Amino acid sequence: MHVTSEQRLDGDVLEREFTLGEIPGILWTPQSASASAPAPLILISPPPLGLRTMYPRLSARARYYAAEYGFAAATIELPGSGERPRWPALEQARADLRRVMEAGEPLTDEIVDALVLPVVDRAVPEWRAALDALLALPEVGGPVGYEGGLISIGIRLAAVEPRIAAAGLFAGSFVPRAIVEEARRVTVPLQVLLQWDDEGNNRQAALDLFDAFGSREKTLHANMGGHAGVPQFETDAGARFFARHLKQ
Would you say the pTM of this structure is higher than 0.85? Predict the structure, then answer.
């Protein structure tokens, strides 16, 4: 993990940009974090729009977690996104998705699998490597939470990574059948956010996925509105969820 820049933000939050091999990332830590009192960590996975595009939203969320709850937060660039190398197969899968949706044709399992599974297969080991590097810092510690991004990445990571203690997931991306089966192995506490009128999400499929999770503690927050209409109060609801499970 190589730190490429750092700056102090409002609220005395330290922001450090870093690279992990070819993968760019950002770490935010509160002033209170130290070797004697390491901050619990939340991994904030971005949507596949690039860290630079999503920076204002990611930074605002991380600063809120640091200022109000004393959490550290970190994010990394997804494969084939932002400043990372182009991924022709992924670009073709996205083009196939756009073509089918614009034509009003049925969305096949083959298209969903090609769009999602290769990203999950590559991204989850990268998140685990980033977690190794982040937890090696003396001022960052467990337990660890995960939130946001492609829900399929969160499902796989929560199923295979024992250091994830709780996850906040956004029901707003296409989920392959194989990932739904993996959801049955997820047992950590979950809070799932569903926008009831999300034009790009199959509501019934989202409800079926929620039912499939194996967690004994799982909560579904459903709000009226489309994909971009998440109420502001859900930010605090998510923070309180993590506070219950990451504060020891």
Answer: yes
